[in-house]
Amino acid sequence: MKTKRKKYNYFSNLKYMLGKHWGFDKSYVILQIGLTPLEAAMSVVAAFLPKIVLDCVENKTDFSQLLLKVGLMSVALIALGYLQGVLYNKSWQGRMLARDIMLHRLICNKVMSMDYNNYTYNETRVLREKAWNAIHGWDGSVARFIELNATVASSFFGFSAFTAIIVDCNPWFIPILVLCYGISMAGWMIFQKWKDKMKDKVAEIFLRLHYVTYRSKDFSNAKDVRIYNMSDFLMKKIDKHLDEANGWNILRNNGHYINCMLEDFFKFGVSLGAYIYLIYLKLNSDMTLGDFSLYFGAITGFGQWLSRLVDSISEIISGAHNVDDFRNFLDIEDKMNLGKGEKLPTGKELPCEIELKNLTFLYDEAEKPSVDNISLKINKGERIAVVGVNGAGNSTLVKLICGLYSASEGQVLING
Q1: pTM score, two decimals?
Q2: What is the pLDDT of residues 211-256, one digit of tens each?
Q3: How far apart are CA 129 and CA 68, in angstroms?
Q4: Is 328 within 8 Å of 3 (Cβ atoms)?
Q5: Secondary structure of 54-79 in HEC code, one letter for each residue
Q6: What letter does residue 37 receive in the DSSP assignment?
Q7: Nearest 5 degrees, angle CA 361-CA 364-CA 365?
């Protein structure tokens, strides 16, 4: 099988996943919309709270008014935090249900309904493994794709709010901060591109590992493992594939660690420079303690929101690639007629007469057909044996008669 793998665009993937989630559980999608502005609102309220307290102290505001202002801000923070916690919990439950029921069901249904000859190809197994990994991986998982979009939107709101605060202090802060975090984002994107290039190889590694581990613990193989003393052989295979899987995990974790170190380095350098500038302004201008506190917190908040925006965009790129993998498996083209079909013979029509007319079957990418222009009639009640060496097309012929394979040429007729 030579499958043409599609690269869906971001908006196509977003529309696809929104449609799947909306059809399965509308409340999950609505929760993501509700969560989007909450965290940004909490962050802004928390940034203004110290300014309000310090301004009141500096202006010698009446203590009762100070308590009222602080109390109202604190109540707002507590209420927003509680609401956020409730919505996050329900969102997590909705994601787990979507993963364990909706997404698993889509893969299982495809596995059981796809053309048998498609199912037997190694490329299909690799696509299936990638689709399975796309569901269960944390890094941009398909199950989290809608949440990742909500996180990007929330990060943008927080980033925009703190940008407005910093611009009021000094607009030059913004391009400097964006440049430094942009370099960090470029590093994450290079890392993500490398991971995407490795996906086929990684899928094959885990496919081999899962196959050997499954066969080694399968009860039906227990007698053969003991009779033929296969335990040492199987353990060597398992160790080999575990080493391959572990090697991949080490490479991926090292790349993640290096990018985190670079991001922290830029974050520390930029924040330190901004803090020094703020201290200089406080010492050499009429900046109030409240403004100093607000700008100081805004620089930290700006860095956190921009860092989160960079991280979430990186994750959403990974998520879009995972949705590609998921959809590429589900979109494998099936050519066999899985419609209503013909009525099965009953009563006097049994046993059946089976006739093969110029039957030919060629596996994809094979040079010669496994079954080549065979014509044969099996009369009612007649018994025959299909005998031949391995690879002669014995099982292929039987699968063609059973309808598991669709003939490249010719016909299989039942009772004419």
Answers
A1: 0.71
A2: 787 777 776 777 777 777 777 888 888 888 888 888 888 888 888 7
A3: 59
A4: yes
A5: HHHHHCCCCHHHHHHHHHHHHHHHHH
A6: T
A7: 120
